[in-house]
Write a structure and sequence with these properties.
Elements (H helix, E strand, L loop, with lengths): L7 H23 L5 H31 L10 H31 L4 E3 L3 E3 L7 H36 L20
Antiparallel strand pairs: 1-2
Helix pairs in contact: 1-2, 2-3, 3-4
The structure holds protoporphyrin IX containing FE (2 copies).
One protoporphyrin IX containing FE binds next to helix 1, helix 3 and helix 4.
């Protein structure tokens, strides 16, 4: 059976979102190691990347509903089900984690800047006690998100190196998927 690749727009969105998520996570983790003077702009960058993830994910979901994914490659029913559940979990995390972060910032009374272009004022009342709980939830959920994304990436790499199928190559730009007869 010929392999159909993901369309270019889906591939671009997948990798742009993956990079923005990893960068937001990395900045979140290392921000405290920087001198005090650098922490504010790093938080702005962190929050901006997270807001970008929300926007790109909304576009991605809209595009996916109009342009279905290429047919699944042959796999055992349990593997197919596990991949579906993992993808749904990733989509949920791509929206929920930055949204919880946004709420954490607002409830703490922080205005949220989008790449120094626009400021979104907080529409909610300040609540410092709840702010701590929401921030903790944001951080724990972010760690779980990275575990799921890590398993997802390892599964894609295992498909490529061990099963030697087109799962990874059809999600890569500039690569002809294995077993492909057309693009
Ligand atoms: C995919 C998106 C995101 C990921 C993976 C992520 C992850 C993280 C991580 C790992 C931390 C580290 C906290 C620590 O160890 O102290 C953090 C903190 C934080 N994040 Fe996010 N975040 C994301 C998006 C957002 C967004 C969109 C906002 C707000 C608009 C936001 C607001 C915050 C705030 C306010 C903190 C606490 C900063 C502090 O007080 O030290 N995050 N986030
Ligand atoms: C934070 C990082 C990542 C996120 C949030 C993410 C999210 C997603 C989502 C939601 C899908 C489902 C696409 C759909 O069918 O609608 C997907 C597919 C895919 N991702 Fe990722 N991904 C990330 C990182 C990676 C990495 C690092 C790799 C490779 C090493 C990778 C390889 C793939 C592949 C090959 C597919 C297609 C799977 C298939 O055809 O069944 N992803 N990703």
């Amino acid at each position: 059976m010929p392999t159909r690749r993901y369309d270019r727009f889906t591939i671009s969105l997948h990798w742009a979102i993956a990079l923005a998520v990893i960068a937001a996570y990395g900045i979140g983790l290392v921000r405290d190691e920087f001198p005090k003077g650098d922490r504010a702009w790093l938080l702005t960058l962190h929050m901006s990347l997270g807001l970008l993830v929300i926007a790109l994910t909304v576009v991605r979901i809209g595009w996916r509903s109009m342009t279905p994914a290429p047919e699944a490659l042959p796999a055992a029913p349990m593997v197919e089900l596990a991949a579906k559940i993992a993808h749904l979990g990733l989509y949920a995390a791509m929206l929920a984690i930055p949204l919880i972060g946004l709420f954490a910032a607002w409830i703490r009374g922080r205005p949220v800047d989008f790449f120094w272009l626009a400021t979104i004022p907080s529409p909610v009342a300040l609540d410092t006690a709840l702010a701590k709980t929401v921030k903790d939830a944001h951080v724990v959920a972010a760690h779980l998100f990275m575990v799921l994304a890590g398993v997802h990436a390892l599964a894609a790499i295992a498909h490529h190196l061990v099963l030697k199928d087109a799962t990874l190559s059809r999600m890569l730009p500039l690569v002809t998927p294995r077993g492909s007869r057309f693009d």
